[in-house]
Design brief:
Organism: Bradyrhizobium yuanmingense
Protein name: Transposase
Number of helices: 9
Number of strands: 6
Order of helices and strands: HHEEEEEEHHHHHHH
InterPro entries: IstA-like_C
Pfam families: Mu-transpos_C_2
Helix content: 25-40%
């Protein structure tokens, strides 16, 4: 820079041009300890070791540890992203960028998908689903509800509750279709009564309805619920009036 000390520059572009010319001269000048120039050493040692730049520009990322839930999803920013179903209960690391969400298990990437900004809506990849869920993924809600409506009101209500209560629709299909299949064995009336008992017990799954039918609990009256005893200063017993 000393060689430019006596010169005046009126723009950064002109200054950079002058510096560039001096750098070319500097890099082509032989080094006394090597008998070769910086340019020659670069071509011999550095250039062969260079690698291409990444195809994608660098993105800053946020990392977060999370546990895979029973529905083989991880929750990030109020959105559920699927991972392979065999990773249920595993702790994974999520790498979150502006565009994508990646999941890693012990340093190995196990899932990658576009980031979603829709809250409380799952992003599920078919390959992550167990075969039992994939089998029913083509059953639409309307078709299942239509079949349930052909049974009786209580069955329709229970199946609607099942479909609405699951975080991901496919997880309710199996129970709903299983309940509809019980009609062939037990008939509409008994299945409807079993669904009514299941609703009363808050038992929202196929196994509960099947157990009620197997044990003929649908044929018995539900246990009576006792009215709660009220306590208040103004409540008087019958002895007060005698």
């Amino acid at each position: 820079m000393a060689r430019l000390g006596n010169r005046r520059f009126f723009s950064l572009a002109v200054l950079n041009e002058a510096i560039h010319a001096l750098l070319v001269d500097l890099n082509n000048r032989p080094l006394w300890s090597w008998a070769r120039s910086r340019r020659e050493l670069f071509e011999e040692l550095d250039r062969p070791a260079l690698t291409p730049l990444p195809d994608e520009p660098y993105e800053s990322a946020e990392w977060k540890r999370c546990r895979v839930n029973l529905e083989y999803h991880v929750e990030l920013a109020k959105h559920d992203y699927s991972v392979p179903h065999n990773l249920v209960h595993e702790e994974v690391e999520a790498r979150i960028t502006l565009k994508a969400v990646e999941s890693f298990l012990r340093g190995k990437r196990v899932a990658s998908r576009l980031r979603s900004t829709l809250p409380h809506r799952p992003t599920t990849i078919d390959e992550h689903m167990p075969s039992s869920h994939r089998r029913y993924r083509d059953w639409a809600h309307e078709r299942i509800r239509s079949e349930a409506a052909k049974v009786r009101p209580e069955a329709e209500t229970l199946i609607d509750v099942i479909l609405r209560s699951r975080p991901h629709p496919e997880q309710g299909f199996r129970s709903a279709i299983g309940i509809l299949g019980l009609v062939r064995r037990y008939g509409e009336e008994r299945v409807d009564a079993a669904c009514a008992r299941a609703l009363l017990l808050n038992a929202r799954c196929y196994k509960s309805v099947a157990a009620i039918l197997k044990n003929a609990a649908d044929k018995t009256a539900p246990p009576a619920q006792e009215a709660p005893v009220l306590f208040h200063a103004n409540i008087r017993s019958r002895s007060y009036y005698n």
